[in-house]
Amino acid sequence: MHKMPRIWVDYLKFLISQKRVTQIRRAFDRALRSLPITQHNRVWPLYLKFVHSARIPELAVRVYRRYLKIEPDRVEEFVDYLKKIKSWDEAASQLAELVNSDKFVSQYGKSKYDLWKELLNIITKNPGSIKSLDVDAVIRSGIRRFPHQVGHLWCALAEFYVTDGRFIKSKDIYEEALNTVSTVRDFSVVFDAYSQYEESMLAAKMEIMEAEGEDEDDGSGSGLTAADEVDWRIMRLENLTERHPLLLNSVLLRQNPHNVEEWHKRVLLFKKDPIKAITTFSKAVATVDPQEATGKPHTLWVAFAHFYEEHNDLKNARVIFQKATKVGYKGVDDLSSVWCAWAEMELRHKQYDRAREVMKRACVAPDRARHTTTDNKNDTSIKVQKRLYKSTKLWALYADLEESLGTLDSCQAVYESMIDLKVVTPQIVLNYATLLEENKFFERAFRAYEKGLDLFHFPHAFPIWIAYLKRFLQRYKGKKKERARDLFEQAVSKVTKKNARRMYLLYAKFEEDYGLARRAMNVLSRACKAVDPKERAVMYSIYIQRVSDLFGVTKSREIYHDAIRQLPQKDLKPMCLKYANLERRLGEIDRARSIYQYTAQYCSPERDADFWDSWRDFEIQHGNEETYTEMLRVKRSVMGQFATVQLLPTDVIAKAKPPKDRKRKRQNTDEMQILEDEKANADGPAPAPTPVPAAQEKPKQNGAATKNPEEIDFDDDDIDVEEKPVPEAVFGGAASGADSGLGARERFKRQKA
């Protein structure tokens, strides 16, 4: 019967009820030896229950160790029991094995870091009980293993030494943590913990001093009194607070040692200590890699040189600049900024010859560069020092120095070199030409303009063209008209629509002053078609004004006709009103009325009330009853036309389309009719006032009306038509108030009076 687990279980329960510990333990051992291992799961739960109830820690520990050989995943139960009996050393050892095991999976769903926190909690709160573990090595391994919790782990290690009474060691741990963490979050955690530690130590020393007196020895064996110990603690706390910006800067530099801005901030922290500032500058320029730098690495070299300059050490400043020019920067602009800063330093100290010599050294172009036209400024395969000659910034400063300190020949040579190397800007070309003009070399200045125009196209060439043409006209006036016309023709042939207005106006002004008036008008006519559509109305107004001044107002009619054909619809109304006013001043009432009738088709009575008011005033002043009535009829027609376009539903438009099963012949006929209508509408805006809007067509008096083949025949009896009065808005305000019941003749007479 010794192979039967049920017999053993009943027997063991019977023994447990008798509470004979030794006999029970031996019975459990005999049961485990007798039963096969597959049936041990029937015995172990009862065995563990027994050791818990026996309250013999040594027995429970030994039983659990045997049990874990069968069920290693139940080690967390063992740890909980060890914590319950306060066997901290054994619990820490078991947890240390768990966190170092890659195969272990918690039955309670705990992560590796949760187990680590549990281990740290045991270690830090019970440092005297931990004998079998090297706590320092364990926590440092966790620091390497969990980089996202470095700050908390460092604080746990320091807290372990504080609890153990080793305060100097804990301070060293805090200092080591501040000098090794690489994130601002971890730094904040460690720094706050360090500050609280120092404050608590200071408070404890002050309590001791108050209790024992200021002259008593502090008991540490250092020979300091309690008052001295308090002063020393206060000094340490203040020093820690003052070091905060420097420690934080060190953290940021550990994150990215190539952060230029942080190196500048670090130098400012040592502003009052020149030795440390120089050391920091030296470390910065040696650490920062220009190819990986965040920011502008050349600013470190420039600031380093300026530091020596502020301390009147120009010799070392020049040495720094000389070293800075040999650094392999990422771009040409960085190196050119170093050379420019060097020259500016020499200028500040009135070393003008040195400044010119510096710029001359910087602007030397390689021999092969003088024979090539390719722009290799951004070619990273070439060293930045060999691409420096392509820096426009460098050449511009060199030209300014030569213009201020050199001779005309040396300055001209610099500008010519810039043009040959194609490093000029439009402003530099203008400066070069202005320099030559100031020295009375006008033809050289014109050649400089032409060289600049060869390098630039519109819109960048626009200021050069304007300056060139103005200077040429100012110099020769009307003496070289053909040459001037040739220049103007070249300019207007390349000018963009955005810049065409100013160019054409300058051309027309030249023809008016020194050429023929007809040529000037021809230029303005071309300008009206060449300018941007947004400026076309203004250009036509200028054209009309000049024609009226030179040839009389009657000559402007053709221009008005052309403007009405060319202008967009939004600019058409003002132009037509000007045209109508012109005809009215000339006494051409019928022509003015035709213009009003033509313009009416583009003007809504609601949006363009000023146009309809102008036409009404015109008819009251110059018309009669019939023309006034015709004006009202056109207004009603146009109002209906705009209302139909705005309010017609899309489903009605869709239903108005011809069905698909229409015969092919009828489809062709409709398509031809549509094309003819479109052609008629396209020809509609012909020279005013010939066209007549569709709203003015008279209904046919003779002949039957054309029958619609798609018309639906309804019986008159089936339709109940409700009659309503016509709204007053249909009459355009002509019938209102007391005049609403009057006819057109009576209304006209009353308004005429």
From TrEMBL:
<dbReference type="InterPro" id="IPR011990">
    <property type="entry name" value="TPR-like_helical_dom_sf"/>
</dbReference>
<dbReference type="InterPro" id="IPR045075">
    <property type="entry name" value="Syf1-like"/>
</dbReference>
<keyword id="KW-0508">mRNA splicing</keyword>
<keyword id="KW-0539">Nucleus</keyword>
<keyword id="KW-0507">mRNA processing</keyword>
<feature type="compositionally biased region" description="Acidic residues">
    <location>
        <begin position="711"/>
        <end position="721"/>
    </location>
</feature>
<keyword id="KW-0747">Spliceosome</keyword>
<feature type="region of interest" description="Disordered">
    <location>
        <begin position="676"/>
        <end position="753"/>
    </location>
</feature>
<dbReference type="GO" id="GO:0000974">
    <property type="term" value="C:Prp19 complex"/>
</dbReference>
<dbReference type="GO" id="GO:0000349">
    <property type="term" value="P:generation of catalytic spliceosome for first transesterification step"/>
</dbReference>
<feature type="compositionally biased region" description="Low complexity">
    <location>
        <begin position="727"/>
        <end position="743"/>
    </location>
</feature>
<dbReference type="Pfam" id="PF23233">
    <property type="entry name" value="HAT_Syf1_CNRKL1_N"/>
</dbReference>
<keyword id="KW-0677">Repeat</keyword>
<dbReference type="GO" id="GO:0071014">
    <property type="term" value="C:post-mRNA release spliceosomal complex"/>
</dbReference>
<dbReference type="InterPro" id="IPR003107">
    <property type="entry name" value="HAT"/>
</dbReference>
<comment type="similarity">
    <text>Belongs to the crooked-neck family.</text>
</comment>
<feature type="domain" description="Pre-mRNA-splicing factor Syf1/CRNKL1-like C-terminal HAT-repeats">
    <location>
        <begin position="290"/>
        <end position="672"/>
    </location>
</feature>
<feature type="domain" description="Pre-mRNA-splicing factor Syf1-like N-terminal HAT-repeats">
    <location>
        <begin position="1"/>
        <end position="73"/>
    </location>
</feature>
<dbReference type="GO" id="GO:0071007">
    <property type="term" value="C:U2-type catalytic step 2 spliceosome"/>
</dbReference>
<dbReference type="InterPro" id="IPR055430">
    <property type="entry name" value="HAT_Syf1_CNRKL1_C"/>
</dbReference>
<dbReference type="Pfam" id="PF23231">
    <property type="entry name" value="HAT_Syf1_CNRKL1_C"/>
</dbReference>
<dbReference type="InterPro" id="IPR055433">
    <property type="entry name" value="HAT_Syf1-like_N"/>
</dbReference>
<feature type="domain" description="Pre-mRNA-splicing factor SYF1 central HAT repeats">
    <location>
        <begin position="75"/>
        <end position="288"/>
    </location>
</feature>
<dbReference type="Pfam" id="PF23220">
    <property type="entry name" value="HAT_Syf1_M"/>
</dbReference>
<protein>
    <recommendedName>
        <fullName>Suppressor of forked domain-containing protein</fullName>
    </recommendedName>
</protein>
<dbReference type="InterPro" id="IPR056350">
    <property type="entry name" value="HAT_Syf1_central"/>
</dbReference>
